């Protein structure tokens, strides 16, 4: 019981970024951290903030906040056992009928009810989330003191704002800043579907009177939700990895294909804003050192916040090419028509490869990377 109270008072926050299938790496890191925590103890992160696929991992942890080991084990089991058909339709009939319906929709009248258009249909993901997540457990864990707050960020296509939907213990007030705000709500599957709707790849999701897509799109400050929820320390599991040559011809001076450009855009959406926000927070921390304690107390809006960032030690794209043929044939044909193949420079494959072999490889990588920094992680989290 004492340990639970210490975790709650620690104000440690976990921030999980997006990245499609790349989010399996986060599970490996969390699995390593679970090795440092005694069994049957609560989550060491009373504040949780997730975006895109990271939002799904975040919500799963929130549902099992009373037992961190159990939550991580369930996450790991899920990532190691589902396949692409669990996330989006990958058979020939559904893939090409979905594309055909999207093309025909462009000829519909403006007053007709239209379904959101996308390259792939991720309806199976909604079914999976409804099966494996019990959202009522979030409120229970907050009431029992295992969790302080959890937020899921999505991007509004209606007004361009970044919206962080959150549940908390009642001590967090909704916030509003330029192009971003926090809205208290009862989290459900639709918030996850909206946050994980990769632009153009998966369909947008309507919540109330707005249409939402992947939370990383308009998220100029990915650390903001955790800070507004009361974080004093922020542990970030990122997806920014070193670039490794995919093949010997990669450095030839040729113009990038449209698929390569699309991959770079996705990489920018999921990684670049985190770098900027961490740099901004570091500058604020350095500035606060120059302000006297009395003046700092007078301006409670600024406070020193520690951070710990762990990123992959290997290139996800290079790993993905090894499992390219795990993709179902209809998906390979679809990607091939867009210029994506097993020897292309595009990173799109690593976002869509929700297959157990690739995901298991990323989990192993995340576990190894975290174990190499065991002492640093223990010190930061005080565990």
Automatic annotation (TrEMBL):
The active site is at residues 52, 214. Pfam families: Patatin. One of its GO terms (biological process) is lipid catabolic process. The keyword Protease does not apply. A motif (GXSXG) lies at residues 50-54. Keywords: Hydrolase, Lipid degradation, Lipid metabolism. GO terms for molecular function: hydrolase activity. The keyword Lipid metabolism applies. InterPro entries: Acyl_Trfase/lysoPLipase, NTE, PNPLA_dom. Residues 14-227 form the PNPLA domain. This is Patatin. It comes from Colwellia psychrerythraea.
